[in-house]
Design a protein that fits this description.
Blueprint (H helix, E strand, L loop, with lengths): L2 H19 L3 E2 L8 E2 L3 H10 L2 H20 L2 H24 L3 H30 L5 H46 L2
Helix pairs in contact: 1-2, 1-3, 1-6, 2-3, 2-4, 2-6, 3-4, 4-5, 5-6
Bound molecules: riboflavin (RBF).
Amino acid sequence: MSRTKRTVIMGVFSAVATIMMYLEFPIFPQADFLKYDPSEIPALIVSFMVDPLAGVTVILVKDILFFFLKSGDPIGIAMNAAAGVIFVSIAGVIYHRRKTKARAIKGMVLSTICTTCTLVGLNALVVPLYFKAPFDLFLKFLPFIIAFNLIKFSIDSFVTFLVYKRISVFFKSEVKEVERRSI
Ligand code: RBF
């Protein structure tokens, strides 16, 4: 893929992902610091359509923009970015080895599990620091942390599975047209 095409796709999808992050809402009232937003979906699409590094770039751009535009909470954004980076890179690397539907599904399932396990570990360190509370608080939140990450990345995987083909066909032909006209 040409550099122009990569740049156009990363720019468009980073903008869409940043806007999507504004839709965030808590899934569990008991652990309302964990907020679902669909912004990893555009990043996962880019990881499949371009490559995992481009997907990771979309995650980092939207998190940096969202931090300055709305959030202001460096720990929350860092946790969101860590989860997103792990999720889109594992799924993307597995898919790019052999680009089949079965590999995409395998990539997303494995990635959801790996991201959930890593985020449990990160939360064990971060929750006591963030809430300035004893380690017991992490144990209290543990079922919600596991469920949140499994739900979040399963929804992202399922939606990507449903829309990927149409979006990638559209973007590949659309960007080709832009490149052709600019020659
Ligand atoms: N986001 C995740 O996707 N998975 C997590 O496990 C996760 N843990 C978090 C733990 C703490 C203490 C905080 C403050 C945020 C965490 N986030 C996590 C990010 C959160 O869901 C939200 O996206 C950000 O706070 C941005 O509003």
